Amino acid sequence: MKYMATYDLMETARTTNQWLGATAQAIGSYPAVSMVPNPFFRLVAAWGEVTERTFARMVAKPDWNINTVVAGDGRDHIVSVEKVVQRHFGDLIHFQVHGRPPKPRRVLLVAPMSGHYATLLRSTVASLLPDCEVFVTDWHNARDIPVSAGKFDVEDYTLYLVDFMKFLGPETHVIAVCQPAPLTLAATAYLAAEDPDAQPRSLTLIGGPIDPDAAKTDVTDFGRRVTMGQLEQVAIQRVGFKYAGVGRLVYPGLLQLASFMSMNGDRHSRAFSEQVLRAAKGEASDHDKHNRFYDEYLAVMDMTAEFYLSTVERVFKRREIARNVFKVAGRQVDIAAITDVAVKTVEGANDDISAPGQCIAALDLLTALPESKKASHLEPGAGHYGIFAGKSWRNNIRPLVLEFIDANSGTPQPGRAHLRTV
Strands across the sheet with 303-304, in order? Predict the structure, then answer.
């Protein structure tokens, strides 16, 4: 599998399907075929429209599409995305709300790097912007990073988070969503030992696999069944000639997407069939519910091979975070070093990716943290997506997280004067 030809074969298949969709849409849309008293050509055009859009979105990075936010003065304020720290494998971005005084709540939202772009948290960002200064980790697609930029594994990821936290300063409140929760906890512990003054005020861990063995899911079972050698042979490929990262070993986003969709194949097939019928009837639109969801869901990014493999081996198989034996750059990271950062865990009762029990395990590792600075929340009826972007987040979890932030805030210092240079 570790050949550029394999990667290019997948890209060729994707491009071919995109072309077939565009061709079918064009043929079915000719005025001449409208004279045929049969819905066949209308269905062909609809199938082509949905197919072309589906395969085109797989290689397109979505836009944030957060253009304005209503401030306390009742006016819409323009929002721009600014890169405040730029690195090879990811940037720290700030959602600058123009014309609005800086909010005292400063939030670092740590986005997952698990196959989708940080824009997966678009609704999370939009819900926080009216009340917070929001910063987000914007991870880059590995296929676009030249081999000369070097490696990027779980230790490098952790050190990126350390640098971002140092840059933002101690008045920051960190929210880690899903995959980065264990490494964000490790980054905070690293700071507690190396630079205590740079620690954030609070840390909220949402649906993350702190201890994957605390509750079994299909994800953890897969990690147990497959050996690292098998995983490397089956999942890792070299970026093909089309992209700047040519030759880099990656876990391809298209392979990850196939894995995602196979878990709920019947539901996805039904959703696409229904969308074709809606398009044929003229009931589909560019930004309807189906397209809004799948434009984001289908937009996948490659992960570096070393990050993917080290995540599986060290976080899931060897459970280094859960056993408190994780090392960064040869240094032992002791979770117990966290003594004054308030920590809250959030889980969904119906989460089938990071099941209840996996995230709350973080609190048991914080042996030196007073109980008054620990909190947890289990959201009834919520699945994985719902606890950070769905109705459960908007109606229940977001208010609780903001209350937790306020309860653990120091004296806020408006403005950006305390941002560090890293």
Answer: 237-238, 249-251, 303-304
The helix (H) or strand (E) run that includes residue 232 is: helix 228-235
Q: Which residue in 408, 407, 377, 405 sits closest to 393, CA to CA?
A: 377
Record the tokens describing residue 136, joined without a space: 């987000």
How far is the C-alpha of 151 from the C-alpha of 113, rounded, in Å?
15
Query: pTM (2 decimals)?
Result: 0.91
The Cα–Cα gap between 335 and 320 comes to: 11
Cα→Cα distances 124→120, 132, 322, 331, 387, Å: 9, 12, 27, 34, 10
> Both tokens of residue 196?
């205590």
CA distance 176 to 202: 11
* Structural domains in the chain plus CATH codes: 4-58+266-298 (no CATH), 68-227+303-408 (3.40.50.1820)
pLDDT in tens, the chain (422 residues): 576 788 999 999 999 999 999 999 999 999 888 888 888 999 999 999 999 999 999 999 999 999 999 988 889 999 999 999 999 999 999 999 999 999 999 999 999 998 899 999 999 999 999 999 999 999 999 999 999 999 999 999 999 999 999 999 999 999 999 999 999 999 999 999 999 999 999 999 999 999 999 888 777 777 677 889 988 988 999 999 999 999 999 999 999 888 878 877 899 999 999 999 999 999 999 889 999 889 999 999 999 999 999 999 999 999 999 999 999 989 999 999 999 999 999 999 998 888 999 999 999 999 999 999 999 999 999 998 899 988 899 999 999 999 999 999 864 444 333 444 44
Angle between the N-to-C axes of helices 265-281 and 40-57, in degrees from 0 to 180, rounded to the nearest 10: 130
